[in-house]
TrEMBL record:
Protein name: Adenylosuccinate synthetase
Lineage: Bacteria, Pseudomonadati, Bacteroidota, Flavobacteriia, Flavobacteriales
Residues annotated to bind substrate: A299, T300, T301, G302, R303, E304, R305
Binding site for IMP: D13, E14, G15, K16, N38, A39, G40, H41, T129, R143, Q224, T239, R303
Chemical reaction(s) catalysed: IMP + L-aspartate + GTP = N(6)-(1,2-dicarboxyethyl)-AMP + GDP + phosphate + 2 H(+)
């Protein structure tokens, strides 16, 4: 059976958690393939809001197995907190959650290194979530990392000590004057490791191979968004993993020819949290309205998200890089009440009009060229069928489908599971 992928097409927070939760009933396995606790995936149902960071968004369903893939980086301390939060929901998560032995561990010193690196950058900081993501992936590619499977070795604490000692020297090198109590952080870390060890560790690539052979249905859940991809994002203002479709192959051990549908998720407008260029960013009342109505605050850090109009130049790029086969448009309800909607369909780039994403989208190089569309005033949040959509919303959707040459198969009209309309 084929593997389907679900990915964010913008700068993250598109609503991946919500849609994975909605789709889980159709799948046997939900697998996270990259990122770590920098992600914050929100699910809402039965009047309760849940935020997951490392645990896949299928965990609230009875049947599906949730797999944390080899491409993910795990902070045992945050992972334990997530599990503690689930404890009150009678989920029997131990039988539904499996972890790749090849996933790398975020150590307390990785978090401190992240903070020291950001502090040393001053104004040029990435705006990292400070969860230790960059330093952990650096140790992975530098071939120094500690993996989940190492916890089964008798000398893993020795390996830990060697790496932590090296990190301490690196932290000193930054001279960033970060205060921390390593002993306290380590006590918390080692306690959380015991919790992690109570879960099932697997050779996940083999597990997924057998699952495919048995005809099981697998959905790979992305974190972050395509414009935060280490190769294809707005470098250096990106995260440290491949958030695009290829990341699912390396982050799970799934062969490219086994991937079938690629679901690309986007907001009906654009948001970004952290630093970096954002051509359609708004600094006026319209941007303020999007942030307020859309409740645009980071699910992981609580930071205010920057808001702006939909950027079709960037979105088209993400559709191409990922080979998106179906689009899902989120938060259309937030745009209700705007008399006119703007969609960026080209960039003015160094005096020329271009429709592809150039190497450098810093504001001094790029000015967005907008197409204006009529907005709608109807409240979408109570709608349950596409036949109720206002004419202007249909025009907006059809315009995007034409520009992106890809069908929009789901329109989300609110944060709740039930506020999801299939087209
Ligand atoms: P993720 O990281 O892609 O899973 O997205 P986040 O959870 O970080 O951010 C999406 C936010 O929008 C969450 O607060 C969701 O509850 C909320 N949300 C998702 N879909 C919709 C929608 O269609 N309308 C509205 N108003 N909120 C939504
Ligand atoms: P989800 O999965 C939005 C951003 C950070 C920062 C940059 C690098 O919820 O969509 P990092 O901590 O990875 O070193 O931060 O990437 N960022 C996200 N923005 N959603 C996310 O995840 C993000 N994960 C990282 O704000 O700009
Ligand atoms: Mg998020």
């Amino acid at each position: 059976m084929a593997v389907n992928l679900l990915l964010g097409l913008q700068w993250g927070d598109e609503g991946k958690g919500k849609i994975v939760d909605v789709l889980t009933k159709n799948y046997d396995i939900i697998a996270r393939f990259q990122g770590g606790p920098n992600a914050g995936h929100t699910l809402e149902f039965d009047g309760i809001k849940h935020v997951l960071h490392t645990i896949p968004s299928g965990i609230f369903h009875d049947k599906a197995i949730n797999l944390v893939g080899n491409g993910v980086v795990i902070d045992p301390v945050i992972f334990k907190k997530e599990l503690d939060n689930l404890a009150k929901f009678d989920l029997d998560y131990k039988s539904k959650l499996v972890i790749s032995r090849k996933a790398h561990l975020i150590l307390p010193t990785h978090r401190i290194l992240d903070a020291a690196s950001e502090a040393s950058k001053g104004k040029a900081k990435i705006g990292s979530t400070l969860k230790g993501i960059g330093p952990t992936y650096m140790d992975k590619t530098g071939r120094n990392g500690i993996r989940v499977g190492d916890l089964e070795l008798s000398d893993w604490k020795e390996r830990y000590r060697n790496l932590a000692n090296k990190h301490e020297a690196m932290i000193d090198f930054y001279d960033a004057k970060i205060e921390y109590d390593l002993e306290e952080l380590e006590n918390e870390f080692f306690a959380a490791i015991e919790t992690l060890k109570s879960l099932t560790f697997i050779d996940s690539e083999e597990y997924l191979y057998q699952a495919q052979k048995e005809g099981k249905k697998i959905l790979a859940e992305g974190a972050q968004g395509s414009l935060l991809d280490i190769d294809f994002g707005t470098y250096p203002f990106v995260t440290s993993s491949n958030t695009t479709a290829a990341g699912a192959c390396t982050g799970l051990g799934v062969a490219p020819n086994k991937i079938k549908e690629v679901f690309g998720i986007f907001k009906a407008y654009t948001t970004r949290v952290g630093s970096g260029p954002f051509p359609t960013e708004l600094f006026d009342d319209d941007g303020e309205t999007m942030g307020r109505v859309g409740n645009e605050f980071g699910a992981t850090t609580g930071r205010e998200r920057r808001c702006g109009w939909l950027d079709l130049v960037a979105l088209k790029y993400a559709v191409h890089v990922n080979g998106v086969t179906q689009l899902m448009m989120m938060k259309g309800d937030v745009l209700s009440g705007f008399k006119t909607l703007k969609v960026c369909t080209a960039y003015n780039y160094k005096g020329k009009t271009i429709t592809h994403l150039p190497y450098n989208i810093e504001p001094e190089n790029v000015t967005p060229v907008y197409t204006e569309m009529k907005g709608w005033s109807e409240d979408l949040t109570k709608m349950s069928n596409k036949s109720e959509f206002p004419k202007e919303l249909n025009e907006y959707i059809e315009f995007l489908e034409k520009e992106l040459e890809t069908p929009i198969t789901i329109v989300s009209v609110g944060p709740d599971r039930t506020q999801t309309i299939h087209r």
